[in-house]
Design the sequence.
């Protein structure tokens, strides 16, 4: 059945159930945790979004590789949340990391370094490139809401560029926090039908109904991580994750029908 | 003797000398290459700057760990070039990656997500936080040179914030491409004595004399990577790297005295 829910995978061993918490090798415990979450939610999600930092902090690159492969073996696409941004020659290496080493289907990238820094990702025409536009955090406004001399805010400029000159291969999507409905509406007006990833539901407090209403008119992927992953820290964690994921999926669906 | 040269470590096996090029395990060949470069240049550098993407694309995290430890065993600090930027709870994990897992002395970060996304790095008071201001690439201007409604350009705003409210622990430095002398002069005027990392010398075409003149009045670290690392692809690569590094160090020193 149709679902717009993306489950973010932010493994945090301190929040794992006891039998997975105190392992010597995080690669095993992180993969086991992720596998249990995936098995419990795979019919509810349109994609999974592993968050790179949570693996990197643990030295768990192997768990990231195994997690991605496991998701894809279940015929679900993987959006690797890396938010990379670097000059062209280095961006080529980051694109290899995301799309060849890890084999992700899509990745998040940061636009601060401009077009030539994004071009190596965009050149992977069969991959999705999710450019940060208006991020879900409070500090997102520090730069992104600055007003330019043409009266537009910086995030609007990013939305404009991302939906025109940067999107020559048609594989660009935007990251737009579910915590900022006004900005989301504005970005939708600028970009037409472009797909948005909306993080910020759940632990960050974003509202599903408001976000779906503001973002309507194009593809929407609603991402939730911690609220699902850590619904319980007991041995029932996977079942508890399913309950929250299903409720979130259903809430999204109900408001989609209403929108 | 005083040196302002930072050697960037961007390992690229295709450019390694033959005996290191065709190994099955990049962790060994990359570390051996880096070790040879470090041994040949350690008295010429004020720091080394391993570029994360080049290791990540190869799955060579172990080589990165070993390289960093080897540099520090030689009593030289390590600036880990990761250019991370993510919301606070994730930035905490990236800060752990850079400063605890890899034990770097400093790291580069991206300001697009604003203050709360940088705070977890800034909280490491004994670490250097190098915030991207005006990057060395052409596309840097796409966002960074946008003019705000107060007449300032975005990179000037970043310089202002970085040298005031973001720098409450006094551990902030800026990344400012040596390829843009006019912007560099402007950033120096805004920030006073703040330290700048100037990438873009060498392969990217930045001019040492012009950069030192424009950046004078505060700390300057001049970074060069490919021009040094790949001065030769023969068995004499380390000696050739030393020749270029020494010439670069001397050129910096001559212009410093003249400035």
Sequence:
């Amino acid at each position: 059945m149709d679902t717009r829910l993306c489950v973010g995978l932010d493994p945090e061993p301190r929040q794992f159930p006891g039998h997975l918490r105190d392992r010597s090798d995080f690669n095993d415990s992180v993969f086991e945790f992720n596998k249990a979450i995936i098995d419990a939610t795979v019919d509810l999600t349109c994609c999974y979004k592993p968050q790179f930092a949570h693996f990197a902090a643990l030295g768990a690159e192997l768990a990231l590789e195994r997690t991605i492969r496991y998701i894809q073996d279940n015929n679900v696409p993987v959006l690797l949340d890396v938010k990379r941004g670097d000059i062209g020659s280095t961006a080529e290496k980051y694109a290899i990391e995301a799309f060849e080493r890890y084999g992700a289907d899509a990745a998040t990238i940061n636009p601060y370094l401009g077009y030539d820094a994004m071009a190596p990702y965009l050149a992977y025409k069969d991959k999705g490139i999710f450019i940060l536009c208006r991020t879900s955090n409070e500090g997102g406004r520090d730069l992104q809401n600055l007003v330019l001399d043409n009266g537009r805010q910086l995030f609007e400029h990013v939305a404009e560029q991302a939906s025109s000159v940067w999107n020559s291969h048609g594989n660009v999507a935007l990251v737009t926090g579910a915590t900022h409905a006004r900005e989301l509406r504005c970005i939708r007006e600028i970009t037409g039908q472009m797909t948005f990833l909306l993080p910020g539901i759940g632990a960050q407090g974003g509202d599903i109904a408001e976000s779906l209403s503001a973002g309507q008119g194009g593809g929407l992927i609603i991402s939730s991580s911690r609220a699902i992953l850590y619904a319980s820290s007991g041995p029932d964690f996977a079942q508890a994750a399913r309950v929250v994921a299903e409720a979130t999926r259903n809430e999204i669906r109900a408001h989609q029908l209403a929108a």
In short: The CA atoms of residues 126 and 141 of chain A lie 32 Å apart. Residues 5-258 of chain A form a domain with the TIM Barrel fold (CATH 3.20.20.70). The beta strands of chain A are 5-9, 47-50, 79-84, 106-109, 128-134, 172-176, 196-198, 220-224. Chain A has one domain: 5-258.
